[in-house]
Amino acid sequence: MSTQATVAPKGPNGSKAAPDTGRRRLTYPVVLLIIAGGLVLFSLTRIVTGSDQLTDSGQFSSALGAAVPIGLAGLGGLWAERAGVINIGLEGMMMLGTFAAGWIGWQHGPWAAALAGILGGALGGLLHALATVTFGVDHIVSGVAINILALGLVRYLAKLWFGGEGSEAQAAGGNTKQSPPMDDMPTFTVPGLSDGLHSIEKHGWFFVSDLAGILRSLVHEVSWLTLLTAVLFVGSFFVLWRSSFGLRLRSCGESPTAAESLGVNVYRYKYAALTVSGALAGLGGAFLAIGVHIYQENQTGGRGYIGLATMIFGNWRPGGVAMGAGLFGFMDALRLRAGGPTVHALLLLVAVLLVGLAIWKLRGGLAAARRAAKIQAGVSLIIAVLLVLWYALTDTVALEFVEMTPYVTTLLVLSLAAQRLRPPKAIGKTYRRGEGT
Which one of 56, 65, 310, 325 counts the least CB within 10 Å of its CB? Predict the structure, then answer.
């Protein structure tokens, strides 16, 4: 009997070549090209549909404000899940952050409110760590329990502290569903640059005016908390991917047993990750309260769950989370600010993107996956045709569909990104010291 050996292909230096998986790594130049191409499409859509509000600086400023709490929640989820703990409780931690910010903010100002939000969310993260790391509770069950517990707790405390008969909070404007108002958070503007970009934006030039609108939103009346959020994203990248602390923390999410064998205290790192996770989510909740100057019941509005979606869409990387938060923030701002006519213009843009997706699906992929790619391309083309018909036969989009846009976007983006995802290997698994020895 003879055997036939399979010879692996050699690389240019004689080493074994990496198998062709059909996937290409998204480098920074490629990402910049994608962003530039998206802006060209937005500019074309604005010109064709006449929907100038689609790319003005006010729209992007609103999108930036909407993206910050979502991005902070997603970044918090990233810290937790890189350490191997699923954090479904982001929504509850954001609730704790909004309430703590409202409670402290009306008495001591917005910066104290931000700090209180961080502490409130961190307490939620510690509770999740106690349940999952110390007692081994299922991560999903613990996260859901925290969401339910936080909702009940903030409602009870709001009635007790803000709505008490004859209380100081009630005299200052509070009630059982909201806190008294707090002062404004300071903003910064670059005067000369802001005015110059506004002048370019008003001309309505193709691409140039749209780019000016985006840039002006970054230098005109920007909250200091937004700048802090950008610093936290950059800092998280360097801490998690460029430091020994981050390497140890990520090893707890990939192989805690191997990390333990190298002397890493896995429990300590999981606790640290969940504390930071809760603090970031709490800061996102505080941003919501500070932005409207009060805490309100149900203020988070599911942004913790959308933040979790941005983390998955971003493939557990800070840059991907930031891009996902920007996308969802833009759609949320459209829902709140623009309304039916502008969302109607987006139907045409989404149809073009779906046609591009169908072409990409037909051109790429391994031979074994081509049948599935053809099915996906066909579905994309059918939906694109339906969207074009919808656009051609109507003048606006009903308010109910406008309200759905952030959540529909969440589902679409996750379904399209699902094939490129690579979660930490030990995510969601209960760890016990010494179990692998």
Answer: 65
Same domain, residue pair 225 and 322 = yes
> Using CA atoms, how far apart are residues 311 and 319, in angstroms rounded to an integer?
10
How far is it, in rounded angstroms, from Cα 210 to Cα 52? 9
Question: Residue 369: what pLDDT?
Answer: 58
**What mean pLDDT comes out for the span 60-74?**
94
| 305 assigned to some structural domain | yes
Gap between the Cα atoms of 145 and 151, Å rounded: 10
Looking at the structure of the chain, the number of domains it has is 2
Query: Could you tell me if 264 and 323 lie in one domain?
Result: yes
Residues in the chain: 437
In this prediction the pTM is 0.88
For residues 76 and 177, membership in a common domain is answered with yes
Q: Which residues pair with 223 in a beta bridge?
A: 187
Residue type, 28: Y
Most confident of 104-113, 370-379, 421-430: 104-113
Please say which residue of 307, 322, 337 terminates a domain.
337
Judge whether residue 161 has pLDDT over 80.
yes
> What is d(CA 104, CA 169) in angstroms, rounded to the nearest whole number?
11
| Residue 24 DSSP label | -
Range of the domain at 360: 340-396
Q: Whole-angstrom Cα distance, residue 325 to residue 328? A: 5
- Mean pLDDT to the nearest integer, 244-267: 94
The predicted pLDDT at position 171 comes to 82
Q: How many CB atoms are located within 10 Å of the residue 187 CB?
A: 13
Residue 366: both structure tokens together = 């391994």
Q: Do 226 and 351 reside in the same domain of the chain? A: no
The total of other beta-carbon atoms located within 10 Å of residue 50's CB is 10
Asked whether residue 220 falls in the same domain as residue 147, the answer is yes
Report whether 310 contacts 71 (CB < 8 A). yes
Among 322, 337, 352, the domain-final residue is 337
Q: Is residue 17 part of a domain?
A: no
| CA-based end-to-end distance of the chain | 42
pLDDT digit string, tens, across residues 173-200: 888 899 999 999 999 999 889 999 999 9
Same domain, 383 and 286: no
